[in-house]
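Hi V.,

Quick status before I head out on leave. The structure for the redesign project is tokenized and pasted below; the design run finished overnight.
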């Protein structure tokens, strides 16, 4: 039987690990990793998060110890999320000088000065209602409604009964970002999805002498079901309604390009896509459209799914999360925010 010879056989370069490594297109390195961490009040607190095995709510002293360990492993940055004991309708704990994030940033920078500290800028964990901004409500009176009244909203309130006052929220977000910068933050990351948030924060930082501090914009943050474990971790679930009026519709990809252009025009330095796995196409679109660093946030639900399946023996945990991180990089992400940062750093060192 005469066969035409195959001039190109892809398997030739797959035969040995040395050959596979020689031509590998996508590579991960420890210096691309950002570890998300949760900080709360108290001392010697390391409270397990049930829906996120291996992740903890940490008091400042425990947080510092964790940061020292991450730094020793070569991880260059952490992203801080705070749990506040002080909650009110204005989210004052977010921008208080002695707020939990402000305390944490100062402590980390004193103990591990070379570790980059990124801070989440939002109000949801600091408000009684759990939303990311200032609430305005429609109070029903004698069968009618009074628009614009600031009132307490019942947990049964529907989407038409309240809204977020976008521009009033911007002022508080800017105050929060400046307070983080004053505490020593290296980078701020507004996650609220208010229109104009990057511009308001950029202006406030510049006016306060922090013109060198970069902003990582949550450019395409989708109204996703993947955030469930995170909301348990920071105790920030909305007490009524949902966040679909300000976070992006999961069906939209072109909109992400418009969001990115707005963030760039307002002074963003890094663009983020959140979640990552269900939005790899969005990562790729942003990477191809804009010459800016792209961050992928490998969120809590993505982490929890793998952990749950691995605990039942349905999946092998390490190969799965490694493949997930490779997929984000292959899609175009330059930096990876992931709860597997420590495991990935260990794995890379072993390799």
């Amino acid at each position: 039987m005469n066969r035409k010879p195959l001039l190109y056989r892809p398997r030739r370069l797959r035969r040995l690990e040395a050959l596979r490594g020689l031509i590998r297109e996508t590579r991960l390195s420890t210096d691309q990793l950002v570890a998300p961490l949760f900080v709360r009040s108290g001392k010697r607190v390391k409270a397990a998060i049930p829906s996120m095995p291996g992740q903890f709510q940490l008091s400042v002293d425990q947080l510092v110890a964790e940061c020292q360990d991450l730094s020793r492993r070569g991880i260059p940055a952490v992203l801080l999320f705070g749990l506040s004991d002080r909650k009110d309708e204005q989210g004052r704990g977010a921008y208080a000088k002695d707020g939990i994030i402000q305390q944490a940033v100062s402590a980390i920078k004193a103990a591990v000065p070379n570790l980059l500290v990124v801070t989440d800028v939002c109000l949801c964990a600091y408000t009684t209602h759990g939303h990311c901004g200032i609430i305005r409500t429609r109070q029903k009176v004698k069968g009618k409604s009074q628009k614009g009244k600031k009132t307490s909203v019942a947990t049964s309130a529907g989407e038409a009964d309240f809204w977020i006052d976008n521009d009033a929220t911007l002022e508080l977000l800017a105050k929060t970002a400046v307070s983080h910068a004053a505490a020593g933050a290296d980078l701020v990351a507004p996650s609220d999805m208010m229109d104009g948030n990057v511009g308001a924060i950029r202006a406030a930082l510049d006016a306060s002498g922090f013109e060198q501090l970069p902003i990582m914009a949550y450019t395409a943050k989708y109204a996703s079901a993947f955030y469930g474990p995170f909301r348990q971790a920071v105790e920030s679930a909305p007490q009524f309604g949902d966040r679909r009026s300000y976070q992006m519709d999961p069906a939209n990809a072109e909109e992400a390009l418009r969001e990115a252009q707005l963030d760039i025009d307002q002074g963003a330095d890094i663009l983020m896509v959140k979640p990552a796995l269900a939005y790899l196409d969005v990562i790729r679109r942003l990477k191809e459209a804009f010459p800016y660093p792209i961050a992928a946030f490998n969120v809590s639900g993505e982490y929890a799914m793998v952990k749950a399946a691995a605990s039942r023996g349905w999946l092998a945990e390490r190969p799965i999360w490694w493949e997930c991180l490779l997929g984000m990089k292959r899609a175009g992400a330059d930096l990876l925010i992931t709860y597997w940062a420590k495991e990935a750093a260990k794995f890379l060192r072993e390799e």
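Above is the designed sequence. The chain is about 35% helix and 20% strand.

G. will cover questions while I'm gone.

Best,
W.
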